[in-house]
Amino acid sequence: EELRSALRTAVEDRRVRLAFQPIVELTTGRLSGLEALARWRHEGRDVPPDVFIPLAERAGLMGALTADLLEEACTRLAGWSAGRDDLLTVHVNVAPSQLVAPGFVTTVADLVRRHGLRPGALVLEITESGIFADLDAARAAVVELRRLGVGVSLDDFGVGYSSLAQLNAMPLDSVKIDRSFLAAVDSDPRQARFLHAVLRLAEEIGLPVVAEGVERPAQLHLLRALGCLHAQGYLLGRPVEVDAVPPLLDGIA
Ligand code: G
Ligand code: G
Ligand code: MN
Ligand code: NA
């Protein structure tokens, strides 16, 4: 319909852009990374990614959109990393369809080389809900990406359909626990115990955790007490536009 053709034009004109949300190291309170989040303003309003990402998928625009956003993320990352020797990472969300698309890994390898990135500075976030549609292809892509040194993080961990055995078979280097696991930890002891169990599971299989959706100090205190190393959420920092990122970086030099 109308929104679809507007999105097509926006992708062609590179008007879908990125916002960046801080990921914080809990032991020090310092910035450790930034998650890139796609933003589209259409007729004066922000269209949520939950709307335009599926629309792009149905319209056959995901390949072009992903290429464009990865290019922007790598350009920004290279600029922000110049002259610094810290370990800033930029996380980019990659739809399952793109992870397994022909040539995807080659495209990523080319980006890393062209922008002169430390490969581990780029982290791709893949979602549990989609990768298991074609598990073998997804695993093969993840193996190749990790061989390049690029990071792969499993997003929305815990709410998808995967078995733990399948997860264990993927050479991931971190998981992001879905914010639903954090929602009630400060009011419901059972939820707090559940979070504890999920964190212990991740630790047992050697997967560092990024906790998502930290909105209240009590959630932050619990995560620290349970030994979670990284977190993200409105309390720690909202998504900001590109121009607001450099001041955030001063905190980590
Ligand atoms: O930012 P938030 O409302 O900004 O994002 C909502 C959802 O959209 C999240 O699940 C997020 O992972 C997804 N999303 C945001 N940006 C992108 C993107 O560039 N590519 C893909 N595939 N998903 C994205
Ligand atoms: O699925 P993904 O993790 O990529 O989702 C990122 C989404 O989560 C974005 O829409 C982002 O704006 C949103 N988000 C980030 N921090 C918080 C938070 O503390 N609370 C809520 N409700 N959403 C958050
Ligand atoms: Mn994400
Ligand atoms: Na998530």
Descriptive labels:
253 residues; alpha/beta; TIM Barrel; eight-stranded mixed barrel; 43% helix; globular; binds guanosine-5'-monophosphate; binds manganese (II) ion; binds sodium ion; Diguanylate cyclase (GGDEF) domain-containing protein
Structural account:
The protein is an alpha/beta fold and 253 residues long. It has a single domain, classed as TIM Barrel. The chain is 43% helix and 21% strand. It is built from eleven helices and ten strands. The chain has helices at residues 2-12, 49-58, 62-81, 96-99, 104-114, 128-131, 135-148, 164-169, 189-204, 217-225, 245-249; strands at 17-25, 30-42, 45-47, 89-93, 122-127, 151-157, 174-177, 209-211, 230-231, 240-241. An eight-stranded mixed β-barrel has the order 1-2-4-5-6-7-8-9. α9 (189-204) links the parallel β7 and β8 (209-211). α3 (62-81) packs parallel to α5 (104-114) and α5 runs parallel beside α7. 37% of the residues are buried. The model has no long low-confidence stretch (mean pLDDT 93). Manganese (II) ion (MN) binds at residues 35, 93, 125, 155. It comes from Klenkia taihuensis. This is Diguanylate cyclase (GGDEF) domain-containing protein.
